[in-house]
TrEMBL record:
The lineage of its organism: Bacteria, Bacillati, Bacillota, Bacilli, Bacillales. The chain crosses the membrane at residues 12-33, 330-349, 356-376, 382-406, 427-447, 459-481, 525-547, 849-868, 875-899, 905-930, 951-970, 982-1008. Pfam families: ACR_tran. The keyword Repeat does not apply. It comes from the Bacteria. This is AcrB/AcrD/AcrF family protein. The keyword Nucleus does not apply. InterPro entries: AcrB_DN_DC_subdom (IPR027463), Acrflvin-R (IPR001036).
Amino acid sequence: MKLVKTSVKRPVGVIMIVLAIIALGVISVRNLAIDLFPEIDLPVAVVATNYQDAAPQEVEQLVSEPLEGALSSIEGVNTIQSQSQSGASLVIIMFENGTNLDNAMLDVRESVDQVKSALPEGANDPSVLRFNPNQLPIMWVGLTGSDTAKLQELAEDKIQPYFERQGGVASVEIEGGQERKIDLVLDRAAMNQYGVSSQLIQQALAGANQSTSAGSIQKGDKDLQLRVEGSFESVDDIANTIIQTPQGTKIRVQDVADVQDTFKKNGTTLVNNEEAVVLSILKQSDGNSVDVSNNIIDAVADLKEDLPNDVELEVVVDTSEFIKQSINSVIQNMIFGGIFALFVLLLFLRSVRATIVIGVSIPIAIVSTFVLLYFTGETLNILTMGGLALGIGMMVDSSIVILENIYSYRQQGYSLKESAIKGASELAPAVIASTTTTLVVFLPIVFVEGIASELFTPLAITISFSLLASLVVAVTLVPMLSSKLLSKAMKDHGRRYWFDRILNRVTNGYAKVLAKALKLRKTTIAVTIVAIIGSIALIPFIGTAFIPEGDQGQISITVETPTGTSEDKTLEVVGKVNDKLEDYKDIIDVSYVTVGSGDASSAVMSGGSEGSFTIQLVPQEERSTTTTAVVQELDEELSSIAGAEITVGEMSSGGLSSSDPIQIQLSGPENDVLMELSDQVITAIEDVEGVYIPSSSIADTQPEMNIHIDRELAAEYGLTYQEVMNQIQVGFTGQTVMQYREGGDEMNVSLIFPEDERSTINDLENLYIQNQQGTQIPLLTIADFEQVQSAATITRQNQQRQVNISSDIVDRDLGSVMQDIEEVLDSFHFPSDEYSYSIGGQAEDMVEAFSDLAVALILSIFLVYAVMAVQFENFLYPLIIMFSMPATVVGVLGGLFITGQPLSITAFIGIIMLAGIVVNNAIVLVDYINILRSRGVDRHEAIMEAGKSRLRPILMTTLTTVLAMVPLALGYGEGAETQQPMAITVIFGLSVSSLFTLVLIPVIYTYFDNLSERIKGWFKKEA
């Protein structure tokens, strides 16, 4: 090949190109974004609407259903889900994979605009948002001190703007603290005395707090703009606002209301049981999590210098820490894997120089891969780095084959340059074909859809890049270095004779086994078939799983008190939980809890009064227990706390799936029936082994007092339905009447009655409703009252009511648990055909991913066969080589069974990788058998000679690949759990397959060769 000759004859040029690639690689690494997992671009849109103080049923009928109807006609919609809760509606539109979300968002906005006018008067304009699972806070920063109002002001005025100016930060949200507000607490007796209604007070305030332009006048040669300035400048201005009573008397607001300049709590936030204001940091969609975290940490250090002495600013939770630890673990495993691979080379080659010649392909291939990753826009994450770690052993395979052939020519008396050129040129086509078989297995992964493609396309690209780079190194740099460095290499001076003696024994032993296998061909095939069947029988004991997640050390605890419970009561329960957590202070790094958060989106997603804990454990190496074990122990410990439903769970490491492992979706028209069915399902699946704390989305109910207004009777008293409704709202929830601005800050001014006049049912019944003439009528006179229990949240999917039952799993694989649950549900008797169930969550994602990967595996096998057919210019020999694949099943299933790992998506990716790797050994063996036979050697002798002579390179390539993956297979370090099944699959699959290849492939070769001779003889007779 010209490339080989050029590289040998122009070493300076090759070296300069290598140095340029290294320089580009260093620059690329510094500019590559770092994340835990590749970003998943899900085609999902969200429509959020507030309908203040409306019950869930009203929100469903008046807001959610009209929106669902309008959105369902959009092209490409897969599923529409809605959640209706008191005062809020959330509609989630999931599109088909491959949908252009930018175009879909335009369609969503158009559909929402069409139905917006049909929404009730009290509903806000719907907000249309693009859902991005990666747009979650990457870190939380806590601000602690004695005065929460001061902390809130400090956070809003100084810290939040400064954080938002940092590179890569998208937004900063504030939780906890206090917000200033103006309450006008109405005096009912004074209002009765003056004949003033709440509407009249509202009109007076709105009319007085106004400024406007009034044209212009001339003064000399200038125009003066006229502006009537009437905006309130102080709280006293509000109190002194004049109200014109129906009787013509002028009174002031302070005569009928107590003007209170006070604070409203935005929930309670505790950091390590100390009240605080917490700022959550969201990164930009293309931001680097680690860089953003570093920028915020630097910003915290800068701000600390200017903060008051009694205020502390500290990072509470930093998710990038786990990212950095995981990437460092992968790098560490890569280094150890590389060392193991080089050790194998040193044993076989018996030369430091020869080892260096081959070993140099590893760093150059890695650096080249970084350059290619940069230009393809990929990130440095646990999967791309894991791809490099998995590929380290394979990076030297091509170089080993080339170097061995160069050495053989050197032994024949050729000069260094001639040996390098002839040896590399002769095997370059075979090496290219061998590498191509490994590469083509990844092509189908790029074309399949779903989460498997989203996550593992970067891994496929990384391994492909690294192998291509190592191939280029093998046919250019290795021949060039061999021509310069191997003058004294590999001469036998008696060094490492012990290893040669072991290798000779292995070779002689293999020759005896191969000779027997050729004599007992049927027995050899029968043993192989029995081994395959036996390994398949292990499948029920292995089970299936979605994606193994790393031990991030983060725990969530949800404390849910009955709907309507006061914040003080919820805080009381939270305090009991904190007391229990004191027993775990040696492994808890930080505990962060929010109670009664004012976040509307979180309110929609959760029902009832809620306290949410986020607990960060100390690093994995500093504790002797896993996060899962701590979760189970805490769950048992906290179950003794009464007055709330407490759920303990392990937080996901990176959000590979936002779903629970098990989700059962019950659909039907009636909430009451769905509630009853959900109770029955939960009772049934609780007995399934592995099911852990099943819960229902409809389990949370809220007490409601339904007020039925007699509209005809109200009309007789001169009242409209709207007037009655408004006065009830003012009486019990208050009503914001205007915005007051002071010092650049805006605050709400609200009308509300004293708390002791709006706390009981009696207060409600005796609420006086005032008509236009000033006459007051008790609400009880014109309304009936009915107390009921209703769902706190109403969930719908595809315009039908739905209840979701979700559960975690422990001590058992997902596939087995799901199979048992399906058996239980199949025996269920639903009331009618209108009611049904479906399986969702990670179980559904797992089934879809396995289906996609199965298609990818079949396509990969076909592509491998096609490449070999092109290489051999023959259909028969590739078919012989393909028989090395079935034996791989023995290693894969046996390895998973021995290590206790379920068959997960990552293990499946390892199987696809094996489809391209295991055939390489068979290619080397069959190719050399054919070469010997072409020289006139007898078939049996050719097989024996090829087996003995090819054993050495087969052992070298197998051992370098296997040992390089051992650190990953051991699962040491943060985040290693994700790649561990993949490494285990490749190690066991390749090891067992190599053994079968060395014995089985020669036997299959004889059978097919006999068949070929018979066919040729048959054609001769016909002729």
